[in-house]
Amino acid sequence: MWCTTRLSSFAIWIFVCGTVKSATDTDVRNLLTELFTTRSYDKLVRPIINQSEPVVAWVEYFLYGLNDVNEVEQKMTTTGYIEVYWKDEFLSWDSNLYDGLWNIYVPQGKVWKPDISLGNGFKDLKELGSDFIQVYITSDGYVLWKPFQIFQSKCNLDPTYFPFDKQTCNLEFVVWSLDIDDVMLLVGSDGINMMEAMESNGQWDVVSSSSSDETESFETKVIFSIRMKRKPLFIVMNIIIPIILLSILNIFTFQIPADCGERMGYTITVWLSFAVFLTIVSASLPKSSDTTPIISIYIMVQLGIGTATVLVSAVQSRFVSRSDDKPVTSWLQRLTLIGRSKVKPNAVEKVNIVEEKVNWKSGMAALDILFFWLFFILLAITTFVILMISAFSNN
Ligand SMILES: *[C@@H]1O[C@H](CO)[C@@H](O)[C@H](O)[C@H]1NC(C)=O
């Protein structure tokens, strides 16, 4: 709509220029006097002759940069501007009378504007733009207004798949006080536009964007959606990999003989570094108690395995020093013998190996191997599961 108008104005301008002399400052002065003084322009009057019809305003959004997406406060901060245009029936003129002058600029405070504001904003409602911003007016009465702003909008972020998540955030522009019968908002021909600066956000990639206009009983609004994907590398390098490494260290507790005095010291040290690391990590995780990120569950499972390791080691260090006068419990004997024979004993061999002596120390060594593999498999499965969920979550 705008484009064709602008083009036709442009065509007229070229034609006028070719035949008549170009506009001078006197023409501009005369035009401003004509528009704002002679016709007594009043910016309180809705710029349409038939006051029972709404003024239609087209809105487009130009995104310069995604500054921040904050999980804690659930907000998105963007830099950009909206481009709003509408027809002001009291601001048109015949450019031939002004030596082909077909466009002027005036400060935004001089003309009527729809009271558009960010409906899902985070800060108090304020007039968009500022008085130094000029609106562009063409001879057929179209007014173009481009308020540049840092928009802070509310955005419900779902942390479930953190740090492999995708999020959608909206910017909703509404007409605040005026009724739908007064002003109607529509998405302009370009909808939402991304500038080159887009790629420079360190944490997020913009995947796609869309725009739509909505009309609810009394409200008219234009919604611009930005869909983005988190870049997970930082979290993977600084949280996930260290946790996996610590878990591996933890499992290797079972490679230290149970009667070695160092063992309890080692396992407690690993547990403590886990706990210290968790306090650092929790600062990077989304703070929400509504939805638990899968990664938090993963960390809890690893901490659980660490705690189990400490407990098992403590109990083992008690049994390993038990006197061999006391017979070894039968299930532990069986376990030890199975471990020794490597292959499943058949019925004949079973008779022979039961003769072998099992003491508490070798029983504990067999337990060590059992727990080593048990926790190793647990670590492998949980890590695999979390990676699979993340990889295939197209949330
Ligand atoms: C003004 O617009 C309304 C609604 O479109 C229409 O019914 C009415 O006839 C119009 N009045 C004039 C004077 O054109």
From TrEMBL:
Residues that span the membrane, as ranges: 233-252, 264-283, 295-315, 370-392
Subcellular location: Synaptic cell membrane
Domain Neurotransmitter-gated ion-channel transmembrane: 239-337
Keyword ATP-binding attributed: no
Example of a GO MF term: transmembrane signaling receptor activity
Domain of life: Eukaryota
SUPFAM superfamilies hit by this protein: Neurotransmitter-gated ion-channel transmembrane pore, Nicotinic receptor ligand binding domain-like
Cited InterPro entries: Neur_chan_lig-bd (IPR006202), Neur_chan_lig-bd_sf (IPR036734), Neur_channel (IPR006201), Neuro-gated_channel_TM_sf (IPR036719), Neuro_actylchol_rec (IPR038050), Neurotrans-gated_channel_TM (IPR006029), Nicotinic_acetylcholine_rcpt (IPR002394)
One term under GO cellular component: postsynaptic membrane
Cited Pfam families: Neur_chan_LBD (PF02931), Neur_chan_memb (PF02932)
Keywords attached to this entry: Cell membrane, Disulfide bond, Glycoprotein, Ion channel, Ion transport, Ligand-gated ion channel, Membrane, Receptor, Signal, Synapse, Transmembrane, Transmembrane helix, Transport
Protein name from the UniProt record: Uncharacterized protein
